Amino acid sequence: VSLIxxxxxxxxxxxxxxxxxxxxxxxxxxxxxxxGRIKVREPYAMRKDFLGGGNLRPPASRGxxxxxxxxxxxxRARLVKTTAVMETYxxxxxxxxxxxxxxxxxxxxxxxxxxxxxxxQRAKPAVPIxxxxxxxxxPMSNCINSGISKIYILTxxxxxxxxxxxxxxxxxxxxxxxxxxxxxEILAATQTPSPGGKDWFQGTADxxxxxxxxxxxxxxxxxxxxxxxSGDHLYRMDYMKFVQRHREANADITVAALPCDEKRASDFxxxxxxxxxxxxxxxxxxxGDALKAMKVDTTILGLNKREAAEKPYIASMGIYVFKKxxxxxxxxxxxxxxxxxxxxxxxxxxxxxxxxxYLFNDYWEDIGTMKxxxxxxxxxxxxxxxxxxxxxxxxxxxxxxxxxxxxxxNCKVSDAIVSHGAHxxxxxxxxxxxxxxxxxxxxxxxxxxMIMGADYYENEExxxxxxxxxxxxxxxxxxxxxxxxxCDKNCRVGKNCAIVNSAxxxxxxxxxxxxxxxxxIVTVLANxxxxxxxxV
Length: 536
Fold this sequence. Notes:
The chain is of the alpha/beta class.
């Protein structure tokens, strides 16, 4: 209260000073205002600056302007005009209402077979990435940084660890943080009495259709647009710019598009647009003449001529903005049997609805396969990295763990990320990710590898007792080499092992021994124990 009183006193003194100077009117005043030499600041804005960011504006419903507390001053004094104040206040209110009218739905993905065995006991969005994060943290953080506070996450497979992480990391305190109407809710696949209600989700569109009744509830009556997101992509994006472009174009649907060159184009579903950015045709991973037919002038979407010549194709990122009414109409009436957005809903809607493309010309990676996941993780350790978790203005959030800093003793570490709580001693780490609570022993070499760490600590007494009994503690044992490999959570790798895939095997399943090889990448399974002297 005393700070607010001080701010009000400063405000009154400033008003008195303005009154003594007298009003600046006529052409001279208008010119000075345009040149920026006269600025009128509202009292609540000044209090916000003084208090370091606390927004003290009264709610608009109270029926008072932002200047209702400004004092009257005798003599030459005049009431300070409130025109500029009201313009500022309304613009911020409009901005707030625009985010409140947006809801995000994050799709938890299917069984994650292409990421197996990392998805053996967890959902794909719950797979660890970057040492301290989970894949779901990327779209969740993008939503928070964009001001979107209404979020549903649709899950189906192995959702226990995902649910636990979301509960710990994104508890919004009943929406108080976002003004009372924000929420993060998990919508799991469930059986219903309706026809087909005993089936699993059949696809992305079917998953949203099963919960379409929520989109019609009075709770989200303010929502006008719905952003559909994937839980297994790595990128940083302002979704409100995406939504704003969607609204400016008055589109029924807007699809996020990634420009790409001919080399990568055949790996994606491509789109062809007209001169106004409206999508006219789709092609799924085309080649040859079919690929050439999908060339577009990407300057239409904002690329310069040089970039447009290098990247004449646009690929769908699997991220969409729908008008809420359009989404409900398509799912329930127009295409009630369509199960997938990318291959069914969007192409069909483009025939008679306004479907626009929105250019996203920045880093984006689909973490859908073991190879892409492994390469994207190691790329985080490069200098400079293609994607950076360290962004003070747009951070990637995750669950707070309150761990001590990493402890590194007499080690050679280059191009690596070492997460908090890790303990490294007399080892070599090159081009690697070292996860939370990792324990790396003496003489160990970690090269081109990812160590996911552990969910809990084993104290020194426990570790000594295990070694005395001939057992293996959590972590990487002394004099072991790990190269071109992933060691999943809580694994126990003994001493003098070589996890290197020296034979160059592409595919192998040795789950009974705790080893799985996919795309030439060796994975030590979560909670597995690898005996001393093992060579892979």
